[in-house]
Each structure stands twice: as structure tokens, then as C-alpha cells.
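User: Before I run my own analysis I want an independent prediction to cross-check against. Here's the chain; please return only the C-alpha cells and, at the end, one sentence I can use as a sanity check.
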Amino acid sequence: MAPKGAQHTMFKTVILATVLLPSLAFGQSSTSRSFYDRNGSFAGSATTYEQGRRDSFYDKSGRFSGSAIRNSDGTTSFYDRSGHFTGSSTNTSPRR
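Assistant: C-alpha cells:
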């Protein structure tokens, strides 16, 4: 079994490959947004991929902190930094 540090590095590599390679291979663009706290200090960022269906969130240090995926049934699924499902939501607003 690999040392814990090596496992962490391998996990990061797998995450990067999972997120970045499909975007590069298919020429998909991404959009980034920054978030600020009430004092105007940088609090983190989000990057949107896959034509708006996937968002990845990063803390103020740039570390991945989780993701949200918009599903075809209209729900959004949320995952923590380890990739574990943490919950979902449904849009209850009337369509325009």
C-alpha cells in the first residue's frame, strides 16, 4: 500500500484528470467567478464546466472544496472535497 502522502497526490491527480482532460479534449470552455466576504476580502471561487452543468468550488487558498452537478431531471447534486454525495436540491421556481 502506498504512503498516505502518495495516496493524496494520486487522488489529486485523478481529480485533475477527471475535471480537466474532458474539457481539453472536447474544447469546452469554463467560466470562473470569485466570491468575497462582507469585508471585501476574497473568500473563494467557483469554476463552471460542461456548458453550465458542473461547478467546482475552491476556498480562498485555492484548494478544491466541493462540486455541484445539475442533473437532467432538474435536481442539483452536491459533493464534498472527497467526492462523497452530501445532498441535493430541486428548483421549485416556476419556469419563465
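Sanity check: Residues 4-26 form the longest helix (23 residues).
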